Amino acid sequence: MARYTAGKTKLSKRIGRNLFLKGARSFSPKDDFSKKPYKSGEHGAGKGKFSKVSEFGKQLLEKQAIKFTYGVLEKQMTNLFKKANKASSDTGKTVLGYLERRLDNVVYRAGLSNSRSQGRQLVNHGHFLVNGVKVDIPSFMVSAGDIITIKESKLKSPFWTNFKLEIPNESPAWLDCTKSKQIRVVNLPLEADLPQDFKIAPVVEYYSRKVG
């Protein structure tokens, strides 16, 4: 499946804010975005500010911010909005809930990876079991009551032997991470558990023209 191949810092600069895509380095003052939080080239420097954009441009930027953060492609986002439109709840919050329930995100939120991209790679390589069954699909959505564990044979690998969490992390209330290297999904993410740094309304408006 196709993935974004541009440098992760470039993606943050394109949006205009740090999306923390580079794991521990994203939280460091040595990170390129921290030093130069603007696009490269003569039009990017200035005072680190981005040029004014239209309302449609703002919709596009916020959409891209969510896609880059969770590592999803346009088709995946479109399908999530189609699914959310069939639900009776708030469309934007429902989509964010779906994204939070992705297995690669759950692994990251629980502190078993230093970035979502690392979590996605671990899932792809078959490191995790959900209720005792191997799941190697990063977009797999967990459900309340699910138990996520690391495959026993993988625990002996150099990755887990040397693994150290290097990012600021506090597991959300909907995930129980009290047992070492095990995640229990207590309940589906509530509104208070959803990320607050996205402006979801413009994104809903954007996709309403595509899937409405």
Q: If you had to describe this structure to a student in words, what would you say it looks like?
A:
Helix 4 packs across helix 5. Strand 4 (175-176) and strand 5 form a beta hairpin. This protein is of the alpha+beta class. The protein has two domains: 8-97 and 196-211, Ribosomal Protein S4 Delta 41, Chain A, domain 1 (Orthogonal Bundle), CATH 1.10.1050; 102-188, RNA-binding S4 domain (Structural Genomics Hypothetical 15.5 Kd Protein In mrcA-pckA Intergenic Region, Chain A). Strands 2-1-3-5-4 form a five-stranded antiparallel β-sheet. The mean pLDDT is 86. The chain is built from ten helices and five strands. It is 41% helix and 7% strand. It is globular.
Mean pLDDT across the residues is 86
How many β strands by DSSP? Answer: 5
The named CATH superfamily of the largest domain: Ribosomal protein S4/S9, N-terminal domain
CATH architecture of the largest domain: Orthogonal Bundle
Described by strand count, sense and barrel closure, the largest sheet is: 5 strands, antiparallel
CATH class label of the largest domain:
Mainly Alpha
Question: Layout of SSEs?
Answer:
Blueprint: H1 8-15, H2 32-35, H3 55-70, H4 74-85, H5 91-100, H6 103-109, H7 116-124, E1 128-130, E2 133-134, E3 147-150, H8 152-155, H9 158-162, E4 175-176, E5 182-185, H10 200-211
Antiparallel strand pairs: 1-2, 1-3, 3-5, 4-5
Helix pairs in contact: 1-3, 3-10, 4-5, 4-10, 5-10, 6-7
